[in-house]
Design goal:
The chain is α/β, with parallel strands linked by helices and 345 residues long. It has one domain: Metal-dependent hydrolases (TIM Barrel). Helices cover 32% and strands 23% of the residues. The strands form six sheets. Strands 1, 2, 3, 4, 20, 21 and 22 form a seven-stranded mixed β-sheet that branches. It has a six-stranded parallel β-sheet with strand order 10-11-16-17-18-19, sandwiched between helices. Strands 5-8-9 form a three-stranded parallel β-sheet, sandwiched between helices. A hairpin with a 6-residue loop joins strand 6 and strand 7. Helix 3 (128-137) runs parallel beside helix 4. Bound molecules: zinc ion. Zinc ion binds at residues 43, 45, 81, 275.
Length: 345
């Protein structure tokens, strides 16, 4: 096994360092003078693909293929926030150095008619806490609560229907309390001002959060909470967009660009997530377009996420020929990738 040596600038800190990967001291020089200690896809769905009426669930082969693609892009850890629980919880329980580490939330927690029909088994309010117990017993270290959602018909979410809360806040509070008592954290999908109540109820990470306010950021940051804005999903232009949809998207983008620069002041951890449509590199680019510095966006995608999720970047490195702080476009094309001490590309 070759020992690879990296000699260059480690980001996001900008420190120069010499790091070796492999059994010995003497080895070959790794291509690339700029390195990041592994990316984290903090809002990933390893078992979902887009379908005509919303996402559909896939099996273990699809998840393995996705993990391979993610590894090649420099992702060394994934937080799977909902999908085929049999597959994702098995990946979370098993250790395998040849692929990114997986933290998983198991199933989507949403009642009947309040999420993409092909992507989940509904959980009635009276069964919610038992479902939480089952996910934790099977290895979930995160839970994925669908906090609000439009009305759903046989063809998926009904266009123009009101997005409203899925479960009562007192039940969400009980869910959070149960999760925290087991050292499990809660990520919540939310796109309305219901986010204020969910943060008060104690959720640990806001997913999407397109209706967050500055006050919400202050409350979330005071508790050390995180926000995964999934900009690839929230602000990307949709095919066959109506003028009204386009102007709503523009307004959403402007709102997020006003909020993101405030996250540092309030101590909110920003995380990057590909969701079903994006990539970590594209998300970094969008974070920069929405007011973060390249260093802040790189932190969100690497060391900041590792810290928040209790992971270490040791043994992982993604390198680039040019400085991503000057040329962020290089992030999509690494010079080399080291995963768990082994060079994989
Ligand atoms: Zn998602």
């Amino acid at each position: 096994m070759t020992t690879w040596v990296f000699d260059g600038t480690v980001l996001p800190t900008g420190d120069t360092a010499r790091v070796t990967f492999g059994p010995g001291e003497i080895g070959e020089l790794l291509p690339g003078r700029y390195g990041v200690p592994g990316f984290v896809d903090s809002h990933c769905h390893l078992t979902m693909t887009p379908g005509p009426n919303g996402p559909v669930l896939r099996g273990p082969d699809f998840a393995a293929e996705r993990l391979g693609e993610l590894a090649g892009a420099g992702v060394s850890a994934v937080r799977d926030v909902g999908g085929n629980r049999e597959v994702t919880l098995e990946l979370a329980r098993s250790a395998d150095d040849s692929r990114p580490l997986v933290l998983a939330a198991g199933r989507f927690l949403a009642p009947h008619g309040r999420y993409f029909p092909q992507a989940y088994e509904p959980v009635a309010p009276e069964d919610l806490l038992a479902a939480v117990e089952a996910e934790i017993a099977d290895g979930a270290t995160w839970l994925k609560l669908v906090g609000d959602f439009p009305e759903v018909g046989p063809d998926g979410p009904i266009r123009g229907s009101k997005v409203s809360p899925t479960y009562d806040l007192d039940l969400v509070e009980a869910l959070v309390e149960l999760a925290h008592s087991r050292n499990v954290r809660v990520a919540a999908h939310v796109n309305t001002d219901h986010v204020t109540g969910l943060i008060r109820a104690g959720i640990d990470s806001v997913e999407h959060g397109t209706a967050l306010t500055e006050q919400d950021l202050e409350t979330l940051g005071a508790r050390g909470g995180a926000w995964t804005p999934t900009l690839c999903a929230s602000v990307a232009a949709q095919p066959q967009e109506t003028p009204e949809q386009s102007s709503r998207r523009q307004a959403r983008s402007e709102h997020l660009a006003a909020l993101l620069p405030l996250t540092e002041r309030y101590g909110v951890r920003v995380l990057t997530g590909s969701d079903v449509v994006g990539t970590v590199a594209a998300e970094i680019d969008l974070l920069v377009q929405h007011g973060l510095s390249v260093e802040q966006a790189l932190t969100a995608a690497s060391t900041g996420a590792q810290d928040f999720l209790g992971l270490s970047g040791a043994g992982n490195l993604v390198t680039y020929d040019a400085d991503p702080r000057e040329h962020p476009e290089v992030l999509a094309a690494p010079a080399a990738v080291v995963l768990n001490h082994r060079r994989i590309s």
